[in-house]
Amino acid sequence: NNGNNNNKNLHSKSTNDDDEENMEEIPFEKKLLHTMYQTATSMKSNAIFVVYNKDFPDKVIASGTKITDNFGKTLDNTMKFGYNLFTKVWGGSSGEDDDN
Description:
Elements: H1 2-11, H2 19-24, H3 28-52, H4 56-69, H5 71-90
């Protein structure tokens, strides 16, 4: 299949320092087809993974729950970090006149 060979050629690693120049020489249409091929291949792989892993939905829910349960803690840590950064960089001044 000639199309697959073209896709493989786009991935071959060059030892030259001018890899970016080599990619720019490839026609846009060829890059687009290659990207579409890669996307379709990834989508197929993901679909196969989901179909054959019956516990996938449960794992997604459990992971999502862990993430959302940590939102409060993450916000607290971010606020502490921001305050510490602010006090170290600007010496704790709020930017208002402290002469009052």
